[in-house]
Amino acid sequence: MNVSLTPELDRFVAEKVSSGRYTSASEVVREALRLMEERDQARQAQLTAFQHELEERLASLNRGEYEDPEAVRARLEQKSRERKRQSA
């Protein structure tokens, strides 16, 4: 497989190899792809969890179970803070 890189990316890869952390450009690309795959899997897991929670909430609404709007807001704000901490 041949891959064309922009001059900036080519320099970036060369810097990584020069640093001694990687032994070749291929190793840099493999690591980048592995990290991209991890990120994609994490995003998919978050989406799946969100969809599951949404389905649960809709089922609750269909059963006539409602949650106080302030409690919902507090829960969502807490989850947002947790996500920000995890991504930092």
Low-confidence stretches: none
How many domains in all? 1
Summarize the helix and strand pattern as letters.
Answer: HHH
Beta-strand percent range = under 5%
Structure class: mainly alpha
Mean pLDDT: 93
Task: Provide the helix percentage.
Answer: over 70%
Number of helices: 3
- Rg from alpha-carbon coordinates: 21 Å
- Give a short account of the largest sheet: none
Overall form: elongated
Count of individual beta strands: 0
Instruction: Report the span from N to C terminus.
Output: 35 Å
Family: Belongs to the ParD antitoxin family.
Protein name: Type II toxin-antitoxin system ParD family antitoxin
Keywords: Toxin-antitoxin system
Region (Disordered): 61-88
Describe the structure.
Keywords: Toxin-antitoxin system. Belongs to the ParD antitoxin family. It holds the Pfam family ParD_antitoxin. The chain is 78% helix and 0% strand. The protein has 88 residues and is mostly helical. The chain has one domain (7-87). The longest helix is centred in the middle third of the chain and has 38 residues, at 25-62. It is elongated. The two termini are 35 Å apart. The model has no long low-confidence stretch (mean pLDDT 93).
List the helices and strands and how they pair.
Blueprint: H1 7-18, H2 25-62, H3 69-87
